[in-house]
What does this fold into?
Amino acid sequence: MKILKYCPSCGKESLHWDGEKKWNCPNCNFTLYNNVAGAVAVVIRNNDEIYLTRRNRDPKKGKLDLAGGFVDPKESVEETCKRELFEELQLDVDISNLKYLTSLPNVYHYKEIDYNTIDLFYEYTVSKKFEVNLELTEISEAFWIPLKELNIDDIAFDSQKRFFEEYLNNI
Ligand SMILES: [Zn+2]
It folds into this structure.
């Protein structure tokens, strides 16, 4: 976080990171908050299988990820689920079938900045398995995997690892 050194208000090399969530300039009292960001992760499920994606870019390139992403400004979390699943998988989500499960904190490290997130986990059950034509942007592949074959070490993010440790106990 110390990559930001120069105050964007007064221009002095006096910007101070508080170690938690804000930068402050003691010279001119400028303050910039790096508040917790909301993010969603959706477990798409059909019987005892789930649909996972493989990341094709950093952070955590090559690791497995649930569909989802950051909440946009002025958006409900359910709208985020619908938007992200359409963007990533061209899936048309029925919001009334989204089931909220739990939340877990995570840190998303991107280009020398740590973004603290609160990851909101949802389950979305589909009555039959689908395959999608992926636009090769954020994900390189997506596939169905039986829950009992899922290896937690292959999961990209700590919050999702913690989530699956609990989730797999209940199958
Ligand atoms: Zn300043």
User: Anything to note?
Assistant: Helices lie at 77-89, 158-167. The longest helix spans residues 77-89. The pocket of zinc ion is lined by residues 7, 9-10, 12, 14, 25, 27-28, 30 (CB under 6 Å). The mean pLDDT is 93.
